[in-house]
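Record Succinylglutamate desuccinylase, 273 aa.
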Amino acid sequence: ELLLQLTHDLSQGRQPLTQALLIVFGNLPAIRAARRYLHNDLNRLFGGRHLAVTPGNESRRAFALEQAVQAFYRAADAAGPVNRSHLDMHTAIRGSLYRQFALLPAHAGDFSPGFYQLLQASGMDAIVRHTEAGGTFTHFTCEKFAAQSATLELGKVMPFGANDLSLFAATDAAIRAWISDAPLPPRDKAPVDYFLVEESIIKREGEFTLNLAANVENFTALPAGYEIARQAEKRWVVQARAPYILFPNAGVATGQRAGLLLRAAALRLPQPA
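=>
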């Protein structure tokens, strides 16, 4: 809904634009069906991982988006060197103790202070940084094209037309400033909390048990020693240094992530050269 309004304002000349901009609506057939996906989780198929699954809607879409991004950056680079950025906006299945948060892909280099400022201005309550490679769209653009990339989790999923867009006003204002080289809006919330992924809970073949109630929210701190998940060959036990649970979901496909355990960390921004 935010992108529809932004696209409309751009087409009518009401929104300034000083950047090369690619707008993507991720998975239109699933959106029309009011489902997360039809065959495979699209946001696990990038970086060529779509080649390893049975062909379907999402595998074709992942390939098409990879090609679109490559063509976009090639065209943008033809006009001269550019700073590449990518925001991938999502909604979450579960409720969250941090209503809006960003996920940064694992990245050998640093994210720039300016990119963190964009995330802060966007109203993010927390930032989570991955520590392992993944098949997400943002990991693909970061790894393949050195983009400053982040997934924005903007709140619990609601049907189109039922969202209170005022809850996304900070994100909308920051994006509009970002694409027009205008000053970022001031942050009017508490400082951002920062987390690192300590461990991924991966569902393998065979019986898998996730010992969490359906109403446990993202970022809930679990007691040390608690067995959060079990599989035939492995138990996941909460450690005191990493007690926070993110994206718990026992219903994921075999081989996919059934949850993340996080630890709190201090955000250390790189110093300007």
